[in-house]
What does this fold into?
Amino acid sequence: MKQRKLKKLKLKKRVKTNRIILALVSLVLGFMIAYSYRITETAQDGRVITDRQWEQDLNLRNQLIEQEELNRTMQQELHEKQEMVREFEADLANEAQVYFNLAEDAEKYRMHLGKVKVKGPGVKVTLADGEYDPMEDNINNYLVHEHHVFKVINELYISGASAVAINGQRLTHNSYIICDGPVITVDGNQHPAPFEISAIGDPEVLVSALNITGGVKDQLVNDQIIFSLQAVNDLVMEPIIAKK
It folds into this structure.
């Protein structure tokens, strides 16, 4: 009887001990579960968020990712458009240069045709008949003739003259000069000596071309023509008025 009571007492102690252990295990397990839940539901800034807030945050993150992808796509499209604009600008610049060259050429043609007023530096060449020589049988030997005038005009054009006039009358691409005794006829208009040939161009180049040894000046002087040359800074030539 006494042994039975002792066994019963030991069993109660064992049960009580097991209950204490079970309680401790339950307490630790509950603490771990609670701590894990808090870690899961806590944001990085330490605030506890609900499921709805978590879902909203996830949606916002997804929208941000989509927006960033859209931005990259639009940025790529922007680069492509900018490249197209640069190509268009280059084409326009080339076209503008072409139009500028055409306009410049057209202006030169109008100037050579005498359609526009021109002004600038240049030279004036005066050709006068030689002094009378009673010992000379042929008076034409010291008069200025059209071939003398042609020599001067051709040399001026070859040397870069952009416009030429005789006694103020502009010459064109189809002008003609005819000698008629002591006068010359330029495009139907008569001009007496002396003949002033003016040309717009680089004065230094034109003067050097006419004064070259054995050139136009020496040839005319040998023909007893009085030759004078002057560089000027402000020549003006009016446009040719077409005859009706």
Observations:
- The beta strands are 118-128, 163-166, 169-170, 177-180, 183-186, 189-192, 195-200, 226-237.
